[in-house]
Design brief:
The protein is an all-alpha fold and 291 residues long. 75% of the residues lie in helices and 0% in strands. The protein contains 18 helices and no strands.
Length: 291
């Protein structure tokens, strides 16, 4: 029986006694897949289809479950089913990795738009305080870290606005209606579970090799660092760190953060990550290190 384990897990398995190894193999063979890969992929493709929300047949096909629940079920299947199920999910016919990354990118776009709206509302509500703060900062001899942070965030919003075009509010409204009609969960929840699915895929050599050869997959994982949840950030850093450990992985991660810099509008590479670490009270560095 083949379990296609990465080196660290294979080493751990070799240390087990024969009885324990046999139990694991028997348990693996007894696993029965609840649903086929196509079951999940058809639903993800439906969520990605901009016309699906106008189709009664497709709305009925996705059912009552939210997109988040579909992703949770997929993650469990990727993590617990036999390796052949995972291979079927990733094969050329199903192209599961491409579909999952397309969905993750779609939800990341929605989340960044939601974050911009929240930021704009926050700035609007305390505009007077910001004017006073800016005035006092301008009178000082140096630019503070918070001012620099605000500066690059303004550049980030400008860069994203250029990328998404003037029609982005209308596009965002259509996406919101689309998500509501298809009973899609919160973008933040979907992104977190998508990253969990990526971790499950990377838990075997076959899936891991596919991910590190998929540039958009690495870029999307890195872009998920803008998620507000510390657990999501920790999960993202765990996956990126794992890629760094393989031959050529360091350059792959550097390229991903170059892309992150362009998309987010950072003044320099790793600016966001370093800002997290510098603001350790908000970032809870102890939690991140333990995780």
């Amino acid at each position: 029986a083949s379990m296609d384990l990465p080196p660290d897990k294979a080493k751990l398995l070799r240390n087990y006694d024969l009885e324990k190894k046999w139990e694991i193999i028997c348990d693996q063979d007894m696993v029965q897949a609840k649903d086929s890969p196509a079951h999940y992929l058809n639903k993800l493709r439906t969520y990605l289809d901009p016309k699906a929300s106008r189709s009664h047949r497709k709305r009925k096909m996705v059912g009552d479950s939210t997109s988040t629940q579909v992703l949770r079920d997929l993650e469990i299947s990727l993590r617990t089913n036999h390796i052949e199920w995972v291979r079927e999910f990733l094969n050329e016919q199903n192209q599961g990795l491409d579909v999952l990354i397309d969905y993750l990118s779609f939800r990341l776009s929605m989340m960044r738009h939601e974050q911009r709206i929240a930021l704009a509302r926050s700035q609007s509500s305390d505009g007077i305080n910001q004017v006073n703060t800016t005035t006092s900062e301008c009178s000082g001899p140096t630019e503070t870290g918070s001012t620099m942070s605000a500066s690059w965030r303004r550049r980030a919003r400008s860069a994203e606005a250029e990328c998404e075009g003037a029609a982005s509010p209308a596009v965002a409204r259509r996406r919101t209606r689309h998500a509501a009609r298809l009973n899609m969960g919160a973008s933040t929840d979907d992104i977190h579970v998508c990253i969990m699915c990526m971790r499950a895929i990377m838990n075997n050599k076959y899936g891991f090799n596919m991910v590190i050869q998929h540039r958009e997959a690495i870029n999307s994982i890195a872009l998920s660092l803008v998620h507000h949840s510390l657990r999501t950030k920790a999960l993202v850093l765990e996956l990126l760190a794992a890629i760094c450990l393989v031959k050529g992985g360091h350059q792959i991660i550097l390229s991903a953060f170059d892309n992150f810099k362009e998309v987010v509008g950072e003044p320099r590479r790793f600016h966001t990550l370093m800002e997290y670490f510098m603001n350790y009270d908000n970032f809870h560095i102890e939690f991140m290190c333990k995780t």
